[in-house]
Design brief:
membrane; two-stranded antiparallel sheet; Cyt_C_Oxase_1; single chain; Cyt_c_oxase-like_su1_sf; oxidoreductase activity; mainly alpha; binds protoporphyrin IX containing FE; globular; 66% helix; transmembrane helix; Cytochrome C Oxidase, Chain A
Length: 589
Amino acid sequence: MTTTLPPHAVNADRPAGHGAPARTMPAVQDKAYLASLKGVTAAYVITAFVALLIGVLIGPLQALNYAGINVYDNHLLKLLVKSYYQGLTLHGVLNALVFTQFFISGWMLYLPVRDLGMRINTKFAWGTYAVMTTGLVLTAAALLLNDATVLYTLYPPMQGSPLFYIGASIFVAASWGVLGQVVYTWLQWKRQNPGKVTPLVTHMSVATWLMWFIASLGLVTEALVMLVPWSLGITKTIDPLIARTLFWWTGHAIVYFWLLPAYIAWYAFLPRHAGGRVASEPLVRLAFVLFLLNGVGVGLHHQFSNPNINNTWKIIHMLLTFLVVVPSLLTAFSTAAALEDGARANGGGGFVGWIRHLPWQNPVFVGITLSMISFIPGGAGGVVNASQAFAPVVHNTAWIPGHFHITVGTAVTMTFMAVSFWLIPHLLGKPLPNPKLARWSQWIWFWGMILFAVGMHWQGILGVPRRAQISAVAQPEVYEAMHLALPRFLTGLSGILLLIGGLMFFYVFFKMVFSRRVQDGEEIEIPYSPSISAAGEDLATASPLVRLTEPLLALGALGLIIVLMVYLPVLLPMVTNMQGAPGQMLWRN
Ligand code: HEM
Ligand SMILES: [Cu+2]
């Protein structure tokens, strides 16, 4: 097997425009500075995958539960994890919060900085990394001590220890450190380059960070105003409905904070891997601005069954949720077009025959493309979940974890895995050791998640609840009457496949990280793609759509106003009529 990464498919005799990168990165002369920037990025990415490794090792135990097999009574396991629910909390927090935020913080710091050719203060960047890691350590300590088995949603009145909430607050605050550094760098660039169009990758990154700022305000308010003082005993009771509402202000939009960084890889880099071109840069910019404007004010679709919320607002949030389908479909069509463009340039033809002419031997391409394919049923299921008519059927059933494992568990996780196959070589000068194994890990993970989704959606429809240790219930007859044999089998099998695929991935990943540096990472370029329709460089001559999508700060302010408009009328009546509940630690009983 070759020791270098399969190239970003470049072929000399291609139609004009193909194969050549659209953008060459501004070169960095100061080697020590570049090493420090790459170092902090690698630290974020590697920490992310360590968290994912632990989270992923717990997943199969949960899948076995949904196969009807209880492994949590095992004495050895009990030494590490006290209960199914502690395992579940660790799994959800490490995978969905820690892995994602660490990866994204490295990825979306590094890309815009290199894209703009700006110099940042790397001491500040390392400081932010240290703060984020401190937050992680505090949170993890509380979780491992079984002091905060409150599940991924942190729903009060279930009460975790102060350590958990303080750690989580520090963790989120650190993301603002990265956010601030990126937005500041971009504004500096704007000042030095008046009248210029922001380059695409930077535009996507800044739009995503601003969206996250608006999104995180809910969780930050919940944590600082409610959870921390309550866990410290300063306030005796807590209003569960207000806490839930603030949680979902952040809780839905956070999925775009995970997805949009993956979209950067889909839009800006995947065409290059496939030998194709970005269909339209102005359209990409529009998609990101639509997420910035409309990604946050939709959270009530998680609260259809909660009392004391006017139904009109639930319906408004539902319709706004459906509106997010627009940028999602823009993404689906644009990325498919870019792939077809690449395949036809590779000599592919026919209605679907071109698919064979895609670089299926390249693990980066395979991981990202499979992640996108699994996102088609994932996204469609999201529309079902958000519909007030269907929500009562699927709410709090196994359907829901079935749904989000083919969104965050694939579209996000597999994309980040696949990106690491070129990003680590680029950052550390350590080539991907075993491309074939890397490719197989992605196929197995993909089929694992598809089987998992089938098994869990199926069980959910039959009425099996989520977040329930159903393998250890007092009345197993209830479940026996549901005819669960086949979906249970599929779920258990998927857990084993995911364990195998996951271990293959981590073997390749850590072998790469711990190998010796053999080349200058700069030889492996960031895979910028050419475009069929570029945004241009000067605002004066750019299209109206490009000019409209350029002022991201103003658009972000508009986004914030929209969120306040759809949230304040919901929150104000709750605040003037508070219902306090005392804390509970159910997992201790
Ligand atoms: C080996 C792969 C994985 C397996 C077998 C697996 C399995 C499961 C199962 C069975 C549940 C449902 C448990 C319940 O409702 O009681 C669950 C929950 C969850 N999983 Fe995974 N999972 C895997 C990977 C991932 C990944 C990669 C992510 C995200 C990046 C993720 C995020 C979550 C979250 C957020 C929950 C919900 C936790 C909660 O309800 O509090 N999982 N997982
Ligand atoms: Cu949602």
